[in-house]
Structure formats: structure tokens, C-alpha cells
Amino acid sequence: MATAGETVLAAYDLGVSYGYEPVLRGVDLELRAGAAPVGVIGPSGAGKTTLINALRGVITPSSGRVSFHGKPLPGKLARKDKHRFAGSVRSVSQNGILLRDPRLTVQSYLSGALKEARRAGRTHPTTVESLLNFVALNASYSGRAIATLSGGEKQRVALAHALATRPDVLLLDEPLTAIDPGLRAEVLRRLGTLAQDLGISVLVVSHDLEAVERLCETVHVLADGTFVASGPLREVLIKGRHPVVVDLRQAAPLTAQRLR
Ligand SMILES: Nc1ncnc2c1ncn2[C@@H]1O[C@H](COP(=O)(O)OP(=O)(O)OP(=O)(O)O)[C@@H](O)[C@H]1O
To answer: What family is reported (predicted)?
Structure first.
């Protein structure tokens, strides 16, 4: 486990291009163990998922760097560091779970994650039942094939899977879009408390300003490939002058009014 305040994952002057098309440029972000959740908002196509993927080490920066405990990603991490990364940095995407075997049950999926936690040296007394309970699903779901779950149920199981290793960093890309607003608020409340109690550093990418406001003390607005405004959502929405922030304010007048 990382010690409080330690930088687990970071992007420095990060640039990513697809072919000749630059998507990110000069993005700086540090995710420290125990830090308050951070949100990234911005228009569709701004590069939010690209940022998450760079932090997951699945795409190679075209400039700058991403590092995990100071070691460059993606890179040839030693076997020990690979397990460490797999347990320490977890992500949940809007797609929930990509299934290789449609017969896979919730029980096998989550117990697989608990085994992964042990391999990564992150053993802790959590059970499949308590993971399900955390995401507001009762124990009867453990016998269900994941393929038979609703979109919102799949998203919650994906979150439970990510939490099974008690990660240091949790990267969330529109994680709870398929859940009704009341339940989403409850799961986010629980997640906020858990992250604080366990020192998990959460980065959440979302178009859902309510969700971001509920969870995050700080938000970054991503536009033109870089962060154009940063701070508490309230300040960013009220005071931001960048055209993208003005668009966000106009697109969510009720939220902007409530935050005033
Ligand atoms: N593999 C890829 N090859 C080429 N272009 C890509 C690839 N992945 C993403 N892009 C492009 O990069 C840009 C940023 O995409 P990205 O998915 O990061 O945006 P986003 O901010 O997450 O968008 P949204 O809010 O719609 O999910 C888009 O123009 C997208 O079409």
C-alpha cells in the first residue's frame, strides 16, 4: 500500500496524439495516496478517456511522461511491479465489464479479483458478499451470470471488482451512468466515504456535474487538449471565463444557479 501523501500515479507535461492528431498536450496531474477525489470534465471528444488510458498505461505518450511510483508507463515493469500496478491502480469504464465468457458469474468474477489482490500483496478481509453489499446489490447476485445483469448492475459489479484490491488509485470513466440518480447518489456517497477511510485517490471523468460535485473537491476542465480551468466546481463554474466553461455553465443552468 502507498503511504499517505505519496505520489502513486502522475502525468507530467503529457501529450498524446493519434497519428498526427494531437489530443492531449501539456497535461500535468499527480494522484497522491489519501488525496481528495479529483474530477475531469469537458466536452465530448476533449480527450478525457485518452487521459485515463494514458494513466492506465495502455497508450504511449507522444510527449511528456506518465509514471507509477516514479517508473515510466507504459514500460517494461518488472514482474513484481506489474502485480503491484494491477492491484494499486484500478479503473472502471462506462462499458462496465467486457466479458470473455458469457457464463462467468458475479461470484467467480469478484473472487478472481480477490485472488488478484492476494497476488499483489493486498490481502484484506473483504468478501464477495461485502463487495456486493457496498454497491447496493444483495448476496443473491453472486450466482448470476454477468451477461444477464442490467447495465447499471454491471457497472456496480465493475466498481466492486475494482475495489476488491483496495487500490491506491481508482480511475473512473463515466462509471455510473446507467444507474438511476437516487442510487447513483448513494453509491457515490459510499465511495466518497470509503476513499477517505482507505486513502484511495479517485480520479473521475464525467459529464454528470452533480456526480462530480458530490464526489470531488477539485475539478479540471479539459479542452483543447489541456486543463483550461481548475479548482472547486463551484468556483470554476461561476468564475470561469474560458468559452468551454461558459458552455458548461449554459448547458447546466440549474447546477450553476444552485452553486451560486
Ligand atoms: N484510438 C483512436 N484513434 C484515433 N482517434 C482516437 C482514438 N481514440 C480516441 N480518438 C479521438 O480522440 C479524441 C478524444 O477522444 P476521447 O475518447 O479521449 O474523448 P472524451 O473526452 O473521452 O470524449 P467523450 O466525452 O465523448 O467520451 C476524439 O476526437 C476521438 O475521436
So the answer is: Belongs to the ABC transporter superfamily.
Task: Write the CB contacts of 180 (distance below 8 Å, at least 6 apart in sequence).
Answer: 152
Ligand 1: which residues within 6 Å by Cβ? 18, 23, 42, 44-50
Query: Tens digit of pLDDT for each residue in 168-197?
Result: 999 999 988 888 989 988 999 999 999 998
What secondary structure letter does DSSP report for 139? G
Name the residue of 16, 18, 51 to mutate for ligand 1: max ligand atoms within 8 A of Cβ.
18
The label of the residue with cell 442510487 reads 183
ipTM tops 0.95 = yes
Q: What is the CATH number of domain 7-259?
A: 3.40.50.300
The amino acid at 14: L
- Which residue of 27, 40, 48, 228 sits with most ligand 1 atoms within 8 Å of its CB, as the best mutation to test the pocket? 48
